[in-house]
Design goal:
With 427 residues, this protein is α/β, with parallel strands linked by helices. It has a domain of 102 residues: FAD/NAD(P)-binding domain (3-Layer(bba) Sandwich), CATH 3.50.50.60. The protein is 32% helix and 24% strand. The strands form 7 sheets. It has a 5-stranded parallel β-sheet with strand order 5-2-1-9-19, with helices on one face. A 4-stranded parallel β-sheet has the order 13-12-11-17. Strands 20, 21, 22 and 23 form a 4-stranded antiparallel β-sheet that branches. Strand 6 and strand 7 form a beta hairpin. Helix 6 runs parallel beside helix 7. The longest helix is centred in the N-terminal third of the chain and has 24 residues.
C-alpha cells in the first residue's frame, strides 16, 4: 500500500524528471530569429563550414557536433608514419572555434539526421532542431576478402588518422632490415587519391636510411593512379628497385587476405608481408546511410549549393558527396565547406545564390622530405555538374624531370600549404 511519504517521493521525482526533460527541450528550441545551422562532423569540411558560416552570418546560431575532442588530419599523417613528425603535429582542437567565433561545439555521437522533422538526433536521444544542417560524415570501409572489422589491429589501414597512424609507424619501426612492407591500394573512388603513393614514398625514405635491405610491394586494385608519372619518376631517382608497384592487371589483384599471418593471395600467387598496410575500398560514412543521404555508396548533391538531392535542408560536403571531378581530398572539403556556408548564409536572408560558385583543389605530395610534387585545379558549379576549368588554363601539375631546386621548393610549399589550411580551418 502506498503511504503519503512514498507518494510524495514519487511525485517529486516525477516533477524533477519533467523539469529536466522540459529544460532539455527548451535548450534545443530554435532561436527567436529561427536561424540555426547544425553541422555534423568536425573535419576539413565541417569545421570550415562552421567557421565561415559565422563569418558570413554572425547572427546565425552555429552548432558543430563532433564526437572527438581532438582531430587528427590525414594530410601529413604519412610524415608521422615515416618518423618525420610526431603525432601531435597533426593534432588539432576546437577551442578557437568556440572562443573566437562563438560556435557551439558539442562532443557527442549523432545517431541520425532526420529530415522529416528537421532535427539532429544524438545517440543519447537528445533532439536538436535546425533550420539547415550540414553533414560531413567522411568515409567508411568496405570490409571483404578476409579483411574485417578488427583486422586493423594486425594490418592497419591508417586511412583515418590517429591511433592507426601510430600503430603503422610502430610496426614499420619494429620491422626487421630485409623485411617486406606490403600495401594494398584500393580501387577508385577513395579518400585522397595520391595518399597511398605518398605513404609508400615516405616509407621508402625511412627504409633507405634505416633498413636499406628492405623492400616495398604495392598491390594496386587499379591500373593507374594519381600523379603516377611524377611519383614513379621520383621512385626511380631516389629509391631505385626498392618499390615494386603491381597493377591489378599485372599481379596486383587481391583474391583474399589473412591480416594475422599477413599472407595475401593474389591472382599471381601468395605475397607475404612483414608489415601489411591494407587500405580497403570505401563508401560514405555510416551516418550518411542512417540519415537516408546515400544513393549507392555516396551522397548525390545539388552542385551549386551541396544540398542533398534526397533530403531537403541537409547539405553534404567532403569525402561523402558526389562532386564530379573534384577528388575526395581535404582541400576539396575545405572549398566545399565555404561554398555551402556562403550559399546557406544567403538563403537565410533571402538573397540570391552565388551563381556559378567556384571551387578549388590543391594537393601536395612528398616523395621525400625535400622532394615535393603537386596538382591544382579550379572548378565551376553549374546545374547538375561541376566543371573542371583546366581547358581555360586554370590549375596545373608539377613539371616532369624538374630541377632538384624545384622539387625542394615544392616540399617547402607543401609544409606551408598544410599550415595555412590548418589556420584557415581551426584558427
Amino acid at each position: 500500500m502506498m503511504n503519503r511519504r512514498t507518494f510524495n517521493k514519487i511525485l517529486l521525482g516525477t516533477t524533477a524528471l519533467s523539469f529536466v526533460t522540459c529544460a532539455s527541450i527548451a535548450d534545443t528550441k530554435l532561436p527567436a530569429n529561427k536561424k540555426r545551422v547544425v553541422i555534423v562532423g568536425g573535419g576539413f569540411g565541417g569545421a570550415t563550414a562552421a567557421k565561415y558560416l559565422k563569418k558570413f552570418s554572425p547572427d546565425t546560431e552555429v552548432i558543430l557536433i563532433e564526437q572527438n575532442k581532438d582531430y587528427y588530419t590525414c594530410p601529413f599523417s604519412n610524415t608521422v608514419i615515416a618518423g618525420m613528425n610526431k603525432i601531435d603535429y597533426i593534432k588539432h582542437d576546437y577551442k578557437t572555434l568556440e572562443e573566437k567565433y562563438k560556435i557551439i561545439v558539442r562532443h557527442e555521437k549523432v545517431a541520425k539526421v532526420d529530415g522529416t522533422i528537421n532535427s539532429v538526433i544524438l545517440e543519447n536521444g537528445e533532439i536538436i532542431p535546425y533550420t539547415k544542417a550540414i553533414v560531413a560524415p567522411g568515409i567508411d570501409f568496405k570490409y571483404d576478402k578476409g579483411y574485417e572489422q578488427g583486422s586493423e589491429a594486425y594490418a592497419p589501414h591508417a586511412y583515418k588518422a590517429g591511433e592507426q597512424t601510430v600503430l603503422l609507424s610502430e610496426q614499420l619501426q619494429n620491422m626487421k632490415d630485409g623485411g617486406t612492407f606490403v600495401m594494398v591500394a584500393p580501387n577508385n573512388p577513395f579518400r585522397c587519391p595520391p595518399g597511398p603513393y605518398e605513404r609508400v614514398s615516405l616509407v621508402a625514405h625511412y627504409l633507405k636510411h634505416n633498413k636499406p635491405n628492405s623492400k616495398i610491394i604495392i598491390l594496386d586494385q587499379k591500373n593507374k593512379f594519381s600523379k603516377q608519372g611524377l611519383f614513379q619518376e621520383g621512385w626511380e631517382k631516389l629509391y631505385k628497385d626498392m618499390i615494386d608497384w603491381r597493377s591489378v592487371e599485372f599481379g596486383g589483384k587481391v583474391i583474399s587476405v589473412n591480416p594475422k599471418t599477413k599472407v595475401i593471395k593474389t591472382d599471381d600467387g601468395d605475397v607475404i608481408a612483414d608489415v601489411l598496410n591494407y587500405i580497403p575500398e570505401q563508401k560514405a560514412g555510416k551516418l550518411a546511410f542512417d540519415s537516408g543521404l546515400v544513393d549507392g555508396d555516396w551522397c548525390p548533391i545539388n552542385t551549386k549549393t551541396f544540398e542533398s538531392k534526397l533530403v531537403k535542408n541537409v547539405y553534404v560536403i567532403g569525402d561523402a558527396c558526389i562532386a564530379g571531378p573534384m577528388p575526395k581530398s581535404g582541400f576539396s572539403a575545405n572549398s566545399q565547406g565555404k561554398i555551402a556556408a556562403l550559399q546557406i548564409s544567403r538563403i537565410l536572408v533571402d538573397l540570391p545564390l552565388v551563381n556559378p560558385p567556384k571551387l578549388a583543389n590543391t594537393c601536395y605530395s612528398l616523395v621525400a622530405p625535400n622532394y615535393g610534387i603537386s596538382v591544382a585545379a579550379v572548378y565551376e558549379a553549374h546545374d547538375n555538374e561541376i566543371v573542371d576549368l583546366k581547358s581555360l588554363g586554370a590549375g596545373g601539375l608539377s613539371p616532369s624531370y624538374a630541377d632538384e631546386s624545384i622539387r625542394m621548393q615544392e616540399a617547402e610549399y607543401a609544409i606551408g600549404w598544410y599550415k595555412n589550411q590548418m589556420s584557415d580551418i581551426f584558427r
